[in-house]
What does this fold into?
Amino acid sequence: MRPLLLAPALALALGASPALAATIEVTIDKLVFSPVNVHAKVGDTIEWTNKDVLTHTATVKGGWDVMIAAKSKGKVTLKAAGAVDYFCRFHPNMKGHIEVAP
Amino acid sequence: MFMRSSTAALAALFFASTAPLAQAAEKPTDPQIAHIAYTADTIDIEAAKLAIKKSKNKEVVDFAKDMERDHEAVNKQALDLVKKLKVTPEDNDTSKALAKAAKEERAKLAKLKGADFDKAYIENEVAYHKQVNGALETLLIPSASNAELKSLLETGLKIFQGHEQHAEHVAGMLK
It folds into this structure.
């Protein structure tokens, strides 16, 4: 939580605008997250595009849970630094990994 | 008790249908494979409908709804493919045996209530997906000659493996 709260304050204090947050695209096709490993920064958004006819989720145990409907999109904005493993609650054999830099 | 017998019945069924693989002529044709896949999906949809109607456990009902939604989507995809390929699914002994075993299983489940039903349904889901995955891996995928049908079955295997893990997770929560 702290980096999120500090970032705007710091930006204000320094009189500079924060670096533009990026959107990182991950595709789901035939029950595979691709790319399976992504690198991101706090404040970036991960956007999943689900090409399957099945509804999936991107779920972090004890953390965020994003529902991604069939033939649809879902996204999450990363709020904390660190490495996260996520999976699909409906098909737990689907796994992905995100390295979140501060 | 019935769990074991139903698993044994399925094992016997798939063993029986795997055994003739030694003779190449006996392996199922694409129209038969399409029928077996559709039958296997429909069986799980019917089991899910029963669970949605009977269970009071949120985890079990949610799981059953997931099964219903996924298997209906898979079946629609399978039907679209057979239409495109102009393949007419053909009934066969494996489909018949699957349907018969499923009918018996449903009759047994229908008599159970509450936690007994939930446990039996979920345990059967684990066993059933395991058996179907075995059949997909050893018989149906290797026998499929059309590349698109083979690809659909391979995706089906990943979906069912996911369901098996999901069912195991729910089974773990019921204990």
Notes: Residues 20-101 of chain A form a domain with the Immunoglobulin-like fold (CATH 2.60.40.420).
